[in-house]
Design brief:
The chain has three domains: 90 residues, Conserved hypothetical protein from pyrococcus furiosus pfu- 392566-001, ParB domain, CATH 3.90.1530.10; 43 residues; 51 residues. By secondary structure, it is of the alpha/beta class. It has a five-stranded mixed beta sheet. 44% of the residues lie in helices and 11% in strands. About 6% of the residues have low confidence. The chain has eight helices and five strands, in the order E-E-H-E-E-H-E-H-H-H-H-H-H.
Length: 206
């Protein structure tokens, strides 16, 4: 039966060597605290191990498996998928990346509700935010849920990698191109500079 959850001994669960998803030690501690506090976690996704008999290879849930081991669990709830190597490679890339984004207003209201019942120091043990961040977010007087920014106001991230020489050139270009506005953050000024450089390149390339 597809997607049936079964309990599998932790000793039979093997990490996939190509898993690209890494979690910081701090977030792993929060994950452990969450599972310890609630006794609940999302079932792992595994497949029959392609090389080791009677074992399973983890596709999604490597950190949950580590957390369960730390807490002394003997088994983990998992869903077994019968898939080939190519499908696994696709899932390793996508399972931890295809996700929605938070609605900030609702997230703020949830934090306020939690803070009214649980102290920030305790909340920070199992939430991504630190104690200081929780206090800062929940101290905002106006709920972000009342703010309706235009869709175009959201920034879209662009990620690229440079060697040391390339980085030096880009940093120099950004320093020259940045305006001196004190009303904008450093990140916003750098974003403006990148757009200006790109626009000039397009203009003079025609």
């Amino acid at each position: 039966m597809k997607n049936q959850i079964k309990a599998i001994k932790l000793e039979k669960l093997k990490a996939h060597p190509d898993n690209p998803n890494k979690m910081s030690k701090a977030n792993l501690r929060k994950l452990i605290a969450n599972i310890e506090r609630t006794g609940m976690y999302e079932p792992l996704i595994v497949r029959p191990h392609p090389k080791t008999k009677n074992c399973y290879q983890i596709i999604n849930g490597h950190h949950r498996c580590k957390a369960l081991k730390k807490l002394g669990y003997k088994t983990a709830d998992a869903v077994v998928w019968d898939i080939d190597d190519q499908q696994v490679d696709i899932l390793l890339i996508t399972l931890n990346r295809l996700q929605g984004s938070d609605q900030l207003g609702k997230k703020l209201e949830l934090l306020k509700k939690l803070k009214s019942k649980i102290k920030p120091a305790e909340l920070s043990r199992f939430l991504p935010q630190s104690k200081a961040q929780i206090n800062k977010l929940t101290s905002l007087e106006e709920s972000l849920s009342l703010i309706k920014p235009a869709q175009t106001s959201f920034a879209e991230p662009i990620v690229f990698f440079l060697n040391e020489k390339q980085k030096s050139i880009v940093e120099n270009a950004l320093a020259i191109s940045q305006n001196s506005s004190t009303t904008k953050s450093k990140a916003a000024r750098r974003a403006d500079a990148i757009v200006k450089i790109a626009a000039d390149f397009i203009k003079f390339s025609k």
